[in-house]
Amino acid sequence: MLHQIKGLHHVTSMAADAQENNDFFTAKLGLRRVKKTVNFDAPDVYHLYYGDELGTPGSVMTYFPFPHIARGRRGSGEVGDTLFTVPQGSLSFWKAHLTAQDIRGLKEEELFGEKRLRFSGPDGDGFALVEKDGDPRAAFNGAVPTDEGIQGFHGVSMRLRDQGATAELLKFMNYEPIDRQGNVTRFAVRDGNGADFVDLETLPDAAPARPGAGSVHHVAFAVEDRAAQLEVRKALMDTGYHVTPVIDRDYFWAIYFRTPGGVLFEIATNEPGFDRDEDTAHLGEALRIPRQHEHLRSQIERILPPIHN
């Protein structure tokens, strides 16, 4: 049992247009852009991070906007929806707000006794706002009033042809099954950070998903520090998973492995955080370049399209 895992850390997806992506999360959803940097493996592509005021683990949605990328195709072996928590009683505000912002795919639902509002992102990304009473996490004071604002992740929902092996992995990762409704099983992490839930939706006849714009690239789970991460890495490898070496991502350290259902998982540290190279009052304003690519700054700045806040 990996008691070191404390819920989600971040969710990383792909997009087609950096400006559209930025506007959607900051102007329409009211999150803060906490970091503007580049893809470590493709430094001519942005890596944009959005979250609460400090980019607290469990609140951060990140994107790789690849120009001209084809839209992904929904299917099995992927994250279907990313779920955010909003205060109890705020969905009427959000329905009116998202309608006024011309957000597509609005649909009110109830699942596991929770009221939710589903909607689509600019590239067909799947999202839902879930009402939760008593969430202590504070919303960012941005384009959306804090009394109704997004407080962080609620969880993610994965689409799988068979959930058996992934369910066993989640149990090993400190999650336990707590409810089932139809073909969806809910897992909750013990002693989590608020971003506590993983839902597994079983779709035995679904075709495999095709990654592209609007697809989740990977889901990251939070551990406190590098020592805890190394313990998790050893335990996963002892169980038979092929896990990458520890990779320095500037704002956290990361390891990756592929799940039986096909979804890419990351284990990320809560340290050092997004204020390691910027004052908290100015997070996400300047373009930050990873050390190994700093010598390419002038070239990168010429290639990257400008983002107007």
From TrEMBL:
Assigned keywords, A-Z: Dioxygenase, Oxidoreductase
Keyword Oxidoreductase: yes
Molecular functions per Gene Ontology: dioxygenase activity
Pfam families linked: Glyoxalase (PF00903)
Domain VOC: 7-132, 152-270
UniProt xrefs under SUPFAM superfamilies: Glyoxalase/Bleomycin resistance protein/Dihydroxybiphenyl dioxygenase
InterPro entries per the UniProt record, alphabetical: cNMP-bd_dom (IPR000595), Extradiol_RC_dioxygenase (IPR052537), Glyas_Bleomycin-R_OHBP_Dase (IPR029068), Glyas_Fos-R_dOase_dom (IPR004360), VOC_core (IPR037523)
Keyword Oxidoreductase: yes
PROSITE patterns: CNMP_BINDING_3, VOC
Superkingdom of the source species: Bacteria
Cross-referenced CDD domains: PcpA_C_like
All copies of domain Cyclic nucleotide-binding, residue ranges: 77-139
Official protein name in the record: Ring-cleaving dioxygenase
